[in-house]
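[scheduler] slot 2 assigned
[scheduler] job type: sequence-to-structure, two independent chains
[scheduler] chain ordering preserved from manifest
[runner] begin chain α
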Amino acid sequence: MIKRYFVRTRSLEEGMRIDQHIKDRLDRTLIARGTYLDQYMIKELQKLGIAGIYVSEGEEDIIPEKKEPPLPPKIQKTIDKERKEDPSKVMLTESVKQRVSTGIQYLYNNTDTGHFANTTTSITNDLMKAINDNSAIAVDISALKTSDEYTFKHSVDVATISMIIAKNMEYSPDDIYSIGIAGLLHDIGKSKVPLEILNKPAKLDDAEFEVMKKHTVFGYEILKEKENFSKSIALAVLQHHEKMNGKGYPLGVSSDKISNFAKILSVADVYDALVTERPYKKGLSQRTAIEIIISMTAELDIDAMKSFLETVILYPVDTNVTLSNGEQARVVKNNKGCALRPTVVSLTTGQLYNLADDVSCANLVIQ
């Protein structure tokens, strides 16, 4: 049973669960309903002048899940024999997701605040800790969601994916940290784009898109004036839409003039933009997005792309999937660099399908 009641802001305590959305003057969610408050959030509510909020306690009645019937012993034995744990993945707890989401929204709404640098480093520290705590070298791209608001979710996703790509490429901890900051702030220039363009619920026309493209320059100008951010971070923000073939923006430079940080951000940015649903388009499936990434060899850096494909987990081990031959199967192993083609075991026959290396499986795909 859930109990809902009103609490004055000055009486809020850490760990209370908010039962309403807190939004800014632009109707953007600052704190989502269901968030467990921490001291940072309580202070921000007080700064906003909010007199009180609704909180709730208790849980909804849980309906027991239906258990799947056990597999035949022969099939289970094959699964147990062939099963290999996925590499350690980035794990963001709900409290971290909420804290990061609130922090990134604060940054995009307050680019001129004196707390900008401290808030940025606090968020990056959370992401770096999540990566280091379990020696993560992979990312489950279906489990990253931090917010329902596109700009903020996208920023955190790009930062996290970029940091894992950089770690796999054996960048130094300091560089991984800087890439995380660049990922968080890569779209900060959108805070200077007119709202009628930024929030347009339809595809932008050519003139509007030209204005939107300026967000890379706006972001660079915001960061270059702040002493706490290196030139490499600002340059990555400026160049994250440049393409290896010189057909990107804002400068139209080619591979040798694009910073390494920007090359990594570009892969993460393109992937996350493809899978994210917007008011004017449906998000693509993760599989389709990866196929598109693989096809962009003329536009994306090959090394960064290869690292992405080696670190991304599309079908986590123990996931049940449907094969193109109609069989249901269970993923028992992910094959490095082959996100679309793991090793699976048929749940009806127990047959092992190594989709990456077995030529007899060349025409078999996961639907």
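[runner] end chain α
[runner] begin chain β
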Amino acid sequence: MVLQIEGHDFHYEMENLCRIFFPYEKIVTTKDLSLDASLLAYTGVFPQGNTVRLRARLRMDGQERTAEEAVPAAALRQEKECERRLAVLLFGLLQELCAYRPQWGILTGVRPIKLLRRLTEEMGRDAAASYFQNGLLVNGKKTEKSLETMRWEEEILASSRPDSFSLYLSIPFCPTRCAYCSFVSQSVVQAARLLPQYVARLCEEVAETGRLAASLGLRLESVYIGGGTPTTLSAEQLAQVMEAVRQNFDFSHCREFTVEAGRPDTINREKLEAILAHGGDRVSINPQTFNDEVLREIGRQHTAEQALEAFALARRTGVKNINMDLIVGLPKDTVESFRETMRQVLLLTPESVTVHTLSLKRSSRINQSGGRFDSSAAAADQMLDEADRSLSSAGYRPYYLYRQSRMVGNLENTGWSLPGKESAYNVFIMDETHTILACGAGAVTKAKEPGKDHLQRIFNFKFPYEYLSRFQEILDRKRQVKEFYEQFC
């Protein structure tokens, strides 16, 4: 697909809008109007005295449509208003020729609830909801879901202080790589020799990060060990990492310590006991589906029965707060099959359930092999509706929501929980509420200016072998956090 740009610099937003309708097409964005293609989108902005003319054009399947709007220049002085109106024009053409209306309208951002909250603060709840529907073309169902999610987030967000922070640890290893996965993770078979050294270095980084947090007087609110699959580590290695966290951070105000167990085939009693013994109080067990055929299709090496056994084992071991992850839109899944998955999940009564929509990242194995899914956008939408209805009826509440590019049906991911069982870390990271100090390969520290939206990102090396071979550079980079905070003290 060729995307032509004339008279403006809204490349990113126009490209993301096209990607909603053509998630698997390579999009070439250019200001060269001579570049032609059978699939072509064009957007242009032309100031004409006190008026600005906006123009959009779309060509596909031998058809071509054009839309224009003349807007008083004064109306475009508001930040991003020109970009929004141009997106509305292009969206109308895309919707018409593709015969498809995305439920989130022209909204392409990852954090719609954060946007809704800002709009609510500026104009009030009702006006913000109206702007979502009429200005951003989000449909009524998604607007109501966003309002409800924002409501349940508020108490958690209000508990964060200017000196608050959360801690993230990355364990970038998995038993195997799922077909849809794009994360930088290593299979244990390939990287087993790296594990002891990785754990040792991670504990060193944790210690250095703990000293840094203490020197800045920061207050720890939540800890999350993710990946990858952290329970790929042995019970002894898990204990080593968690003990390093306990020894190097003040837990006086920490409300949550999550370990993502993820793959049921990596869970045993020894690992669960190690998690509990070292302060872990929330575990995520992620079946994704209870359909064995779908599990085989996505490259999971466990069965639905193993997921049920892992959950039961966690309960017997004493884990009182369990999250379960599910995915809608998986290959070979159906609405009926997903309904059965939801039935089994609700029989277990986990404290929280995170419902993801499949996202087809460029680097995933399925996408690289050119695979397309039987599950249509309409089916994924029905699955998501089924999840929303059944979880709401069972007393769960949506407490955080985010979106990704190339999601089937351009839908969303939603975290649901029983009252009082919301994950503070999930809310903090999605809202970008406060600083996240991150350790491990692929981890990204996000230092946040107190009271402002300004963030500084500090990246660790992605691959475990880089993390190990250039470890001193990672420790050196961590000093940027102190320099960042010193600007505001």
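[runner] end chain β
[qc] chain β: The first strand starts at residue 2 and ends at 6.
[scheduler] slot 2 released
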